[in-house]
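FORM 7B: Structural annotation worksheet

SECTION A. Query
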Amino acid sequence: MTAPARPGAGPAAPRARVAVPVPRRSVLLLVLAALLGLAAFGWPLLLTPSSSLAGTTQAPFLFAVLLPLVLAVVLAEISDGGLDVKALALLGVLSAVAAGLRVLGTGTAGIQPMFFLLVLAGRVFGPGFGLVLGTTAMFGSALLTGGAGPWLPFQMMAAGFVGMGAGLLPRRVSGRAELVLLAGYGALSGYLYGLLLNLSFWPFTTGYGTGLSFDPAAGLLENVRTFGLYTLATSMGYDTGRALTTAVLVLLAGPGLLVVLRRAARRARFDR
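SECTION B. Predicted structure
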């Protein structure tokens, strides 16, 4: 006989399953890609004054070449082990929709509706799918707008981080709490995306003597302070628009879109 349940004790909240789990052999590659991506953005803060790259422009161009190669390897590995034909078809549809949303938003005052879709899709389909969706959606939008350039790999990686982060959020949260969690993450990711892109071009946008420029001879704390001032002075308002847009769209469209995406995942039965 089973023991009676304690009075007032309810069943544990079901853990939401990831529709497209990352294969075990791809986890390490995903972690390495994330670390390289963070190094690509944060190199101004990681270099020491005695480094051979300090005071040069080699680092950003080196990472601009390496990032597409790393992303290509990650896409191939995840596609080979975790994305079947149905998942790839859905990835194509969501990438096209997200790219269209970015074009529709035009970025005025930071209004970029693309990111709420990355958050919701990453939540339902998992971190690997979220990373791939962010990179392919940003690449597709660059083709639509003619925005391809040396900055594109950094935009792709930053958008991939947004989708991957949503897939790594706690799985046991559900209902209204899940919606609040996703909205909060959407707002936070709006700021983090802006910070990452600022880091990628901060050393080249202001001249010495302005009090906002990167100084390769300065220490870590001094450059962090300078970068914070630079962000406040140049992009905080724009990033706030992105954060608010993402959070509001998650709250408004999230309940219905989460149901649609999860129903599509169940019907496609990616885990079979």
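SECTION C. Observations
The longest helix spans residues 236-268. Residues 61 and 150 are 8 Å apart (CA to CA).

SECTION D. Sign-off
Analyst initials: ____
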